[in-house]
Amino acid sequence: MASLRRSAEAAEYGGAMSDSPPPRGRTGVTIGVVTVLIIAVLVVIAVGRHRTSSRGAASPTTAATLFVGAINAGSGDGAAAISCTSFADGARSTARSGADPGISYKLGDVLVDGNTATAQLQQTFDIAGSPHQSQHQLTLKRSGGRWLVCGQI
Fold it and tell me: What are the chain's domains?
C-alpha cells in the first residue's frame, strides 16, 4: 500500500520518490565561510588600531615630555617610539647627542593649534667648561588620536 502511495505521489510531482533524504544545499558551508571571513577582517582591524594607538601619547605635552626624557637618557628607541615614522631616524640621532653627559635638553612651552603643536626645546651644552644654550622647536602632530613628535627645527 505504501509503495502505491509513493507511486501516486511520484506521478503527481513528476518523478520517482525515494526513501533517501533530499540533497543538502551548501548554504551552511557558505554561511560558515562568510562568518570566518568577517571575524578575520574584524581581528585585522582591531590589531591595526592597537598598533596605531600604542605609539604616541594622549596629549602633545605628554608626547614632548616623553621625547625629551628619552633623548636626555640617550634612548634612541624611546625617542623613536614617540615619533612619527618619518622622523624616527632624526629622533635616534638627537638621542645620541643627549647621551653625551655635557649635553642636556629642557622642554619649554607647548602650543597647540588643532591637530598640530609646537614645543620649545632648550639645549644646554658645555664647551671647555662653559655652558652654552641653543633654542630649538619640536613639531608634533595628532595621528589616530595620538600625538607624535614629527620634526625638530
Answer: 60-152 (3.10.450.50)
pLDDT tens digits for the chain (153 residues)? 555 455 555 555 555 555 666 556 677 656 655 554 455 445 444 444 434 447 899 999 999 999 999 999 999 999 999 999 999 999 998 898 878 888 899 999 999 999 999 999 999 988 888 889 999 999 999 999 999 999 986
Q: Coil, helix or strand for 59? A: coil
Whether residue 104 contacts residue 124, with contact meaning beta carbons closer than 8 Å, is answered with yes
Contact status, residue 137 vs residue 122, Cβ threshold 8 Å: no
Cα angle 70, 71, 74; round to 5: 90
Q: What pTM does this model have? A: 0.63
Cα separation values, 133 from 81, 93, 106, 121, Å: 26, 19, 10, 10
